[in-house]
Amino acid sequence: MFKLIRFINVIKTARNSLKYLFNDEIPIRYKLIPAFGIIYLIMPLDLLSEIRIFGIGLLDDLFIIYLTFYWFERLSKKYLDSKELISSTILNESLISSSLEFFINFFIKLNIKNLS
Question: How many domains is the chain built from?
Answer without folding.
Answer: 1
